[in-house]
Amino acid sequence: MEAVQRNRFLPRPDPDSIFVGDGNFQAVGAEFLGHFIRKGGVQPESRVLDIGCGIGRMAVPLTQYLDPAKGSYRGIDPVTGGINWCQQKISPAYPNFEFRHLDIAHSLYNPKGAVNGLELKLPFESRQFDFIIMTSVVTHLPDEEVNAYLQEVERVLAPGGRLFMTAFVVDKTAQENAFNKRDARLGFQRYDEGPCWFVPELPPLAAVGFDDGFLDNSLTRAGLSITTKSLGHWRGVASDHYQDLFIAECKGDT
């Protein structure tokens, strides 16, 4: 992690082109590399899929970890600009890293997209990935699309493969914010009668939280077994990660 963070030769986008959240691009990527290894169990020879790869924030540090002969990385995203940058700046130096634009419609990131998120079909054969990343993806999806994504994740994960997913779980602590320690930007309020929570001051899909238990049930229904559920410090509790974290394993047949 320290080597990745200090490496001034690693590609990094212009600050004005980063659309994947706040924080230092290289430092956040290095932090997540540590989480992928220590918590998620990713290995140098893993076959990795990054859903919502953005502009390479998770890909860049993984270039220093995945074995170029045995490991591989595939990144998909609906934002053309991010994919173009990754194809130009990462793939030429790391040919085991490939990036693909997936034209999924999204009101914020790809409003003219051709593919309805409810009809998502990942462009990969079944059972071919050992480790799937979904960082800050379900935080921008309605509940029905979360279910569609997780069904596809289960299909393309190899038996024993793992999903690493971050989210906002609106539990009692996050709702009540009794000690005023919750991130002030995330004053979630429930949306209609469903499991979704939105931030009133923001566009609906800018930040999405879910009832505690919704994501657990969605993962289970998709055929995934939760191995880790760890709540993040956005809600004002002590934690070594900001968003909430789920790690789930595929028990599917070969």
From TrEMBL:
Q: Which residue intervals define the domain Methyltransferase in the entry?
A: 48-161
Keyword terms = Methyltransferase, Transferase
InterPro entries xref list = CFA/CMAS (IPR050723), Methyltransf_25 (IPR041698), SAM-dependent_MTases_sf (IPR029063)
One Pfam family here? Methyltransf_25
Q: Which GO terms describe its molecular function?
A: methyltransferase activity
The superkingdom of the source organism is Bacteria
Q: Is S-adenosyl-L-methionine given among the entry's keywords?
A: no
A Gene Ontology annotation in the biological process aspect, one of them, is: methylation
Q: Which PANTHER family match?
A: CYCLOPROPANE-FATTY-ACYL-PHOSPHOLIPID SYNTHASE, FATTY ACID C-METHYL TRANSFERASE
Q: What is this protein called?
A: Class I SAM-dependent methyltransferase
The organism's lineage? Bacteria, Pseudomonadati, Pseudomonadota, Alphaproteobacteria, Hyphomicrobiales
